Amino acid sequence: MSFTSTKMMQKAGVVSRTPVVRSAHQVRQQARSAKHQAAPSVVAAVVPQQQLSAAARRASLACRVAAAEAPAAAGADSSSSSASNVRGDIRNIAIIAHVDHGKTTLVDSMLKQSKVFRANQDMAERVMDSNALERERGITILAKNTAIRFKGVKINVIDTPGHADFGGEVERVLNMCDGVLLLVDSVEGPMPQTRFVTKKALALNKKVVVVVNKIDKPAARPEWVVDSTFELFMDLGATDEQCDFPVVYASGVNGIAGMSPDTMSETLEPLFDTVVREVAPPAVAFEQPLQMLVTNIDYDEHKGRIAIGRVSAGTVKKGIPLSICSSLEPGKVRPGKVNELFVYDNFSRIPVEEVQAGDICAVTGIQDIGIGETLCSKESPVALPTIKVEEPTVSMTFKVNTSPFAGKEGKFVTSRNLKDRLDRELERNLAMKVEPGETADAFVVSGRGTLHLGILIESMRREGYEFEIGPPKVITREVDGHKCEPYEEAIVEVPEQYVGSVVELFAQRKGEMQDMQPSIEGTTRLTFKIATRGLLGLKNALLTATRGLGLLNTIFDSYRPVAGEISMREQGSLIAFETGQVTAYAIETAQERGQLFVKPGDQVYEGQVVGVYNKSGDLKLNVCKAKALTNMRASQSEKKVALDEARIMGLDDALEYITDDEQVEVTPLSIRIRKDPSAKPSRGGSRR
What we know:
The protein is α+β, with helices and mostly antiparallel strands. Among the domains are: 90-278, P-loop containing nucleotide triphosphate hydrolases (Rossmann fold); 291-376, Elongation Factor Tu (Ef-tu), domain 3 (Beta Barrel); 479-561, Alpha-Beta Plaits, CATH 3.30.70; 573-628 and 641-658, CATH 2.40.50.250. The chain has 18 helices and 37 strands. It is globular, with a radius of gyration of 29 Å.
């Protein structure tokens, strides 16, 4: 809380003239102690809520919550009999945040300080990001489980993705936890994904502990961040109790935390203490029949499918027969058996004989188990409510490769191979859908965004698959008789001198600016509402307009009426005229037409896109033309033309580039763009 806000509250009579309060926990403790000296029930009436700053409203709210808790505390003795139905030795938490706000780094420090690793053990950075793609891209893609011990309490920790496209992972794992650590960057504050994951946690009534991370940054502004987070809670319709969130300040990379940014501990112990104190222990029903909702699926070459979930009631034991059912298929029950049973402890799976209600475990031996199904006792097969995630917003067409180079570089090339792989993906990726395409060898795959689908494509090509991808398309739906398309909230951080270029770029794509605020170090934060269709291919255009200095973050907002035709790409493509090997002689003249994707020695085929044309429309040219040989010696005065460096198109670049009449050829060795033989030729700038 800022000094100015405190003075305002003192003047209004909201708080007494005490030292500056900086954290939500201190605010609440001060309010609770003042409750015994004065009547806090009238605090809310002193000043209208809308006239107070965010910090002042938080303090006023803490007083109201403290007053409301007094009767509950007085009657605590009468409810002591229910206390035995909780697992006081366990806490289940998930760590949620916007991308790059330091979740996995914080987990690294938590694992180190809980003595999970030996003192001489060499531990890699971001140890939870075990997937190769996660390490390459520096983001978390899959939710993962681990556990640490603190003062006799086992804390099950779930590390979740931070990118909006992988929000389905977050929605699934929230079913396993009782509270969440909401990490917020000490400079950036709440971002689009922060809003999404917070909304889900509040809707499930999970206890939220706000962690202002990266507090060691020179430009850190923790007071503004806490106030902005409080405003976010208010905007999401949080209750008074939810808005009275505890705050911990931390630096994950340095492994320090504190209840105030000015008084930091040398360890993360204040964070551990807050988790144990604020997050409720799991409520359990030991005597009830077994119920365990499968929330995640893992795979092991020797053990097969591994079902992961939290035991809601009863006890699951190794070797026992059980029943499997789902709320989506009432009355349908099939048998199963637990071959092996594991719990998470100290960054590994520990085999155990039984797991009681309240703990998170992994079960093997059921090869047809799926996410959202319930493991029950044979005597009482009652399914728990299944897991629901938000619908996909973007689709792409996957189909068998039909280019002239088809089958030369891939191991799995048939439609059956493609279908089997997509079916396996559906078993664990609830946010994805697969439907039949227009032909027998085509499949329409829907997901949360181009990154969500792009990770699947990259994973498949690394596994040896060869196929073609159509351009991304938004999924429309009927709302009140009107055709609507998905809209997203886009936040752009950009240096002040490029604000005009960004506003113009979004205006061309029918974006509406909602807010413009000064940020830090000469940057401005712009907020837009824009159709998802307008975001397709925007990343490269934004980097060009801002000289590579613009940062874009988006999150799904709502479905709105279709925005109409949107201009996507003004430049056309350079298309190979014939099949053959690219020559330096041909590139000398071809590079004058635009930027090329190929270099001398590359193999190309007729119809392949080999570059970006400087003008609108497409241009066919011959990049395989060889210099005619004669008996005349070349003149020494002939000038040698320097060849421009070819632009290497990665998968993300290709998906950003293609338009309606183009497609991407994906193989384990190459990424090529080609014109769709079945599409009409382009006659001008690309529009969608």
